[in-house]
Amino acid sequence: MQTISFPANAAASPVHHGVHELLENALEQAFLIANTNGEILFATRKTRAILRAFFAQVPDDLIPNEIRTWLVKGDTNRPLVIHHPKKGEIEICKFSLSPSENLSLLRIEHRLVRQGPKALLTLGLTAREAEVLFWITEGKTNPEIAVILDTSPGTVKKHAANLYAKLGVPTRTSAARCALSILLADA
Questions:
Q1: Mean pLDDT computed over 46-74
Q2: I want to staple 163 with a disulfide (CB 3.0 to 4.6 A). Which of 9, 96, 129, 185 is the partner?
Q3: How far apart, in whole angstroms, are the C-alpha atoms of residue 39 and residue 21?
């Protein structure tokens, strides 16, 4: 674990506030600096949005207890992964900022959980038609889908024709467009 020296008087600098604000808004990744008391000393805008989504009840200036417990007592050599059934998951990695381990830099990565074919059942399709449509949205051909689903290309073609009729669309591309509107909205 690499240690980065962090000057204690950095907050007193007159430029500090401007740099702090610039970094909060400019960094595209989700980073935060926290101490072992659970106080957030710095967080990017993306970090604050992720924390609000996953931990709505926690004040903006504190890290959630689950993360603090991991920081203080957990195995920080391995990332902490927190799952949410609808919002996906976050993976948190820790980097020490001080030799005493009082300050930590956390990088948070948010990943959406893909519902896959199950989300397409809302279109009124059978489970198999939903699977065929899902693989169509992934750019697979009928023979490729047949291999994936362990069936014949003719069966895939028949499922595709049935789902086109149910969706009221004439082509594979328009069916994929319908599916993507569900899959992307779901994410």
A1: 89
A2: 129
A3: 18
CA-derived radius of gyration, the chain: 23
**What are 91's two structure tokens?**
């993976």
Predicted confidence at residue 97, as pLDDT, reads: 79
Identify the residue whose tokens are 């779901």.
Answer: 186
Query: How far is 106 from 99, CA to CA, in rounded Å?
Result: 16
120-151: burial string, b at 16+ Cβ within 10 Å, e else: beebebeebbbbbbbbbbeebebeebbeebeb
20 pLDDT higher than 60: no
Give all domains of the chain, ordered by start, each with its CATH number: 8-111 (3.30.450), 116-186 (1.10.10.10)
CA atoms within 13 A on the CB side of 55: 17
Instruction: Return the number of other C-beta atoms located less than 10 Å from residue 119's C-beta.
Output: 18
- Other beta carbons within 10 angstroms of residue 165's beta carbon come to 10
pTM above 0.70, yes or no: no
**What whole-number distance in Å separates Cα of residue 62 and Cα of residue 37?**
9
